[in-house]
Write a structure and sequence with these properties.
The chain has one domain. The protein contains 7 helices and no strands. The longest helix is centred in the first third of the chain and has 55 residues.
Length: about 180
């Protein structure tokens, strides 16, 4: 065997090695991308759960939200609590929209977030807050929320849930079951 033949075999072996390395790297990148996507989705869901748990665990937040829904006047502390709560919730919604735009969320996760956002934006107190706070958010999210509000205001459809009626109904059901 001459040196040229040995060199050719070496080049073939080297080429195969490069191809195998590239295939391995592609598989690793795909796995890493899937893991990063799953972590991003989970982090977003965790952030949303923290907002919801904060509301569930703090009676003062629930009280302020009930007052706001009933269009009752809020004192300064209540107003700041409501503002902080809504800013936190809407930062989550904005992140969700960015993740969805990048294809991170599947359709069912995005659909759930979108329904919750619409539910928030149906409330008049949230629309009032949004009119003052919208400048805090990115252009794409502002446009998205503005379009939802416009659709809601043009629509004859009712709320997903009328929370005032639902809470009164639940209270009445609870009282009736105690009397039975």
């Amino acid at each position: 065997m001459n040196w040229e033949a040995i060199g050719a075999v070496g080049e073939v072996v080297g080429g195969v090695g490069v191809i195998l390395t590239l295939v391995y790297l592609a598989v690793q990148i795909r796995q890493n991308t899937a893991m990063m996507t799953a972590q991003t989705v989970q982090a977003s869901i965790d952030a949303t759960q923290r907002v919801l748990l904060f509301r569930a665990e703090h009676p003062e937040v629930r009280s302020v939200l009930r007052k706001a829904r009933a269009d009752e006047e809020l004192n300064r502390d209540e107003f700041e609590l409501l503002t902080a709560y809504l800013q936190s919730a809407f930062m989550n919604f904005q992140a969700r929209l960015q993740h969805n735009t990048r294809g991170v969320f599947d359709a069912s996760v995005n659909e759930s977030y979108e329904k919750i956002l619409v539910d928030y934006l149906e409330a008049q107190y949230v629309q009032r807050w949004w009119s003052y706070s919208r400048a805090l958010y990115g252009d794409a999210f502002r446009e998205h929320c503005d379009q939802i509000i416009e659709r809601l205001n043009d629509s004859e459809d009712g709320n997903l849930i009328n929370w005032n009626e639902a809470s009164q109904s639940m209270s009445a059901d609870k009282s009736a079951s105690r009397n039975d």
